[in-house]
Amino acid sequence: MEIPPKSPDRSEKSPQSKELLTSNTASTLCISSRSESVWTSASRSKWDIYHKPVIVVSVGAAVFLFGIVITSLSCIQIKNKDVYKLCGPAFLSLGLMLLVCGLVWIPIIRKKQNQRQKSQFLQSLRSFFFNR
Q1: Quick check: is 91 in a domain?
Q2: For the chain, what is the mean pLDDT?
Q3: I need a labelling partner for 42 at 20 to 30 A (CA). Which of 23, 36, 80, 92 fits?
Q4: Is 43 helix (H, G, I), strand (E, B) or coil?
């Protein structure tokens, strides 16, 4: 009996696909890394730098204000008073947590930017003096 040739499984890859996989690995790692590369030091706008903490602060403030409204409804409303008493403090605490996290995040980003600028300045000085 003759055994038919085995068809390649999905888990097995052809040599061409293995080459493509290894050649794209370096660029994928650079793109997915958290720290920015020294070579991509294009100037970014303030919005590009601070948009995440600004969004967190905005959402936190909105949730906090919503919690204030719901908590005040528990004092005024007689109907569904227990629901307002449960949900109000939950929204208050969640909003306050997001607000504080966003407000703490902004100085951390500023400090990181200052360190990055100092590092780039020192690297340019080092390359100026040692590459002569």
Answers
A1: yes
A2: 77
A3: 23
A4: coil
